[in-house]
Amino acid sequence: MLNEMRRGAKGTLAKLLIALLVLSFAVWGVSGFVNTVNPTEVARAGDTPVSAREFERAWRVQSMRITQQLGRSLTPQEIQSFGIANSVLQSLVTGALQVDAAHDLGIDVSDDTLAERLRSDPRFVPEGGNFDRNAFNRYLANFNYSENEFFKVEREAAVQEMWTNSLVGGLTVPTPYLEAVNRFTNQTREIASFRLDNDSLSTIPDPTEEELRAFYDEHKDEFRAPERRSFSIVTLSPDALAEPEVVSEDAVRRAYDADGAYGTPERREVQQVVLDDPDVAQKAADAINGGTAFSAILRELGKKRSDVDLGLVAKSAIFDPAIAEAAFSLDARKATVVDGRFGPTLVRVDDIEAAAKQPYDEVKDEIRASLALDEAIDQARALQTDVTDAVAGGAPVAEIADRFDLPTQTVEAVDRNGRDENGETVDIPGREAVLNAAFAAEAGADPAPVEDGDATIWVQTDTIIEADILPFEEAQGDVLLAWTEAQRSKQLDEMATAAVEAVNSGTPIADVAAQYGAEVAQSAPFTFSAAPEGMPRAVAAAAFEGPRGHGASVPDGNTRIVFQVTDVTEPAFFVEDQGLSRVRQQLDEGMANAVLFDFLNAWQSDVGATVNQQILNQLTGVGQGQG
After folding, report:
1. Where in the cell is it found (predicted)?
2. Global confidence as pTM
């Protein structure tokens, strides 16, 4: 966020600082903020302040950046929902904690050092050239900096670099640790495997009734009839009340003439350039209106078209009302200057797309239905009050349906999923909400209202059939199926155990597979994190649990996979390898981030941090001017 406002460190340290800002979100939370009294400060970390002006500048930059990325202005609601103010504040307070810790150690930079940084800053020094004062001045103007403010930010950035270097600059993971990570990541294995399934099983003899009864007695809870409920519902729906045929033609025509929904609004291609100096903005507008090419004006202002183009937008899509009003008052390819939320703003319009409207005959039926539904919604609101009063008076669903001429339905003996005793799914309006209400109430309780879109449904539970264990005679078919499946699973487990024991005793896996009529498949080499296509993840993980020659089995649905590790290839380890260099860099950064995070967390606990919530609200409040 502040990369364009600060000169960051390069390489690893730059990444560390960026990561640190992210980590700061865990350190900081709005609940930890308390009010301060200095009206020029938005926050303070220890003895290091964050000025209101610094926050406001960073907040504006981030808001403008998101605006440019989206190609349109942000609404006040979007500014709040994106959490721009909070993320900017968190980053600034984290930076202030770094500076405060550095100053406590006596770390500072001289004016000569700052001058040298400026002379080598690529923002102001073209490649192979010298310091460009004009580029520097444009930068100050773009971000509304005075020179003193700019050098204050630069000094803090330099102090943060030095402090970070002093704390974690030489931190690196030990080589044995890197070697272990390399082995874990890049070691490859190959396995030979075969699958045991139902075709491998011997015939399972039919059980005796005694065996089935014994199995039933051990697993009674698996053979329960679900709780069932019968309930009545009455529905109040605007759709059912709507009467399009009674809506007059005059009413439809009036709605068509008044409603902009049946057309597309005028849209304009708008550019906005926020400037610091209103005179510069007015001069640019005069030049544009005098015929100077807009591209030439942008070059003179040091801007790119992509930085200022809002795209083809309707008036309502422009966040700043002053800019919207100006843009939709201009002729094509003309410009003006307004006092916008972010300062003096040059506004220019390119192409204009006129508004359009659908023919009346194409939309009249839609309008008629919409007007009828609006009237029905009003009727439904009034009826809802009457029905609610009737329910409070003890009226059951049947009486409510008769009194108010509303549709009713009785649902008989369904389970919690809405299935009847034959397992068929019953059609129930507002299905999930109605079933939840029916199964939450006591039998005979007052009807409970639930929402189903625009409709309200009152649900009254009539009877409850409690869940209970089925008698053996009723459950016998399910008991036989469950017993048979248990016998198959037991046989598969026993066969897999015997097969693994044979493999681990030295019998070739191909010979073991042949005993079960199975064929061995040989895998390609794979790593722990990348199993070959078709290999279950559990098999790949288990293959790394033993040495070469190790055998094991893994369940896979209704089958068992028996495998043996046939080859283990250790990865080469060269510290200078480019891939390992990247891994080491990531590990180094992770370790350094952890150290920085822990240090700043402890430092913040020691020195404290406060936020002036009143100033923060004033700076970010919706509807307040930002000029």
Report:
1. Cell inner membrane
2. 0.47
